[in-house]
Amino acid sequence: MPELPEVEVTRRSFANAIEGAQVLAVRLGKALRWPLGCAASNLVGRSVQGVGRRGKYLLLEFDQGWLLLHLGMSGSLRFAAASELAPSGAHDHFDLITTLGTLRLHDPRRFGAVVFVESLADTAARKLLGRLGVEPLSDSFSAELFFIELKQRQAAIKQVLLMGEVVVGVGNIYASEALFMAAIRPTVRAQRLSRARVARLHAAIVEVLTRAVEVGGSTLKNFSSANGESGCFQLETMVYGRAGLPCRICATPVKLLKQGQRSTFYCPTCQKL
DNA sequence: CACGGATCCTGATGGC
DNA sequence: TGCCATCAGGATCCGT
Questions:
Q1: Integer distance in angstroms from CA A101 to C1' B12?
Q2: A6: which nucleotide lies closest, measuring CA to C1'?
Q3: For A180, phi and psi rounded to 5 degrees?
Q4: Which nucleotides of strand C are protein-proximal, with an atom < 7 A from a CB?
Q5: Which of A11, A46, A53, A56 is catalytic?
Q6: Under CATH, what is the fold of the domain A143-266?
Q7: Is A153 in the active site?
Q8: Residue A151 is a catalytic residue
């Protein structure tokens, strides 16, 4: 589910509200992808300094230590007063109960994770964050560096985008959308892209992610931000989820193919090799 | 080392 | 209605 825009929208939806909160208790449900990394009681008494983001991870900063949260495919967060929150359901696997409200992770498929580390330099944190590529919405994402990185990759450009080792946060929806916007065929090997085409892709990634954040992300099944709001980027996709439907630019039927077990959507007319 | 495939888990959907 | 196969926004691990 959540790619960079959904994670960023989630972050913004509760970062201010949770700042300064002190942890009163923690409730754990079923196991997520990885264990918490410490006793739940170890979090009690810590206070939240802020909420950051690295790729698709949310970084909850305590006065001491960090909580790394990942939403996996089906995760979403809520932050609300305990009185507004329903009793925890079958798919609510983590509650951080604080003086300012409860932060709850809802994740039916349990590909998500909540991991505590004392420091971002800890091996546990480095294992999760250490190989991540550049942040696409930061100044350090430059077309020239992007070009140099892509020159070293032989895999299909769509796959390279999904890997997250060159640039983070671009998942299955936005990879297809950015490649369409840049008029690049998803199957082209990354290293074969010219400087000019990489520059177009660079701009397209920034544009599509920025736009998606603006409209609250994509709500395909049940994504919502931590205050319960849905996104609407899914209404304006050019190719994602539109197999067989006419391209919004040229009316050629949108094609669907599988790359690494994932669906890729593209327009065979607009996106040239 | 870089790549491709299998894999974790549950729910929704579509065909028969 | 039931059963089964297929498919989902992710990312790690393992074999080649």
A1: 32
A2: C9
A3: -65, -45
A4: 7-12
A5: A56
A6: Helicase, Ruva Protein; domain 3 (1.10.8)
A7: no
A8: no
pLDDT > 70? residue A36:
yes
Question: A4-129 sits in which CATH class?
Answer: alpha beta
Question: Cβ of A159 < 7 Å from strand B?
Answer: yes
Residue with tokens 């942040």: A135
Asked whether A160 and A153 are in contact (CB, 8 A), the reply is yes
Residue A256 buriedness (CB in 10 A; 0-12 / 13-18 / 19+): middle
What are the extents of the domains in chain A? Answer: 4-129, 143-266
Query: Quick one: angle between helices A4-18 and A195-214, nearest 10?
Result: 40
Helix, strand, coil abundance in chain A, percent, nearest 5: 30, 25, 45
Nucleotides of strand B under 7 angstroms from a protein beta carbon: 2-12
d(CA A29, CA A90): 8
Q: Quick check: A3 CB within 7 A of strand C?
A: yes
Task: Dump pLDDT digits (tens) for A240-256.
Answer: 999 999 999 999 999 99
Spatial separation of the C-alpha atoms in residues A2 and A173, rounded to whole Å: 10
Task: Report the pLDDT value the prediction gives residue A233, as an integer from 0 to 100.
Answer: 87
Say yes or no: Cβ of A70 under 7 A from any atom of strand C. Answer: yes
Let me know if A115 is exposed, middle or buried by CB neighbors in 10 A (0-12, 13-18, 19+).
buried
**pLDDT tens-digit profile of A208-235?**
999 999 998 888 877 888 898 899 988 8
Collapsing DSSP states into helix, strand and coil, what is residue A187?
Answer: coil
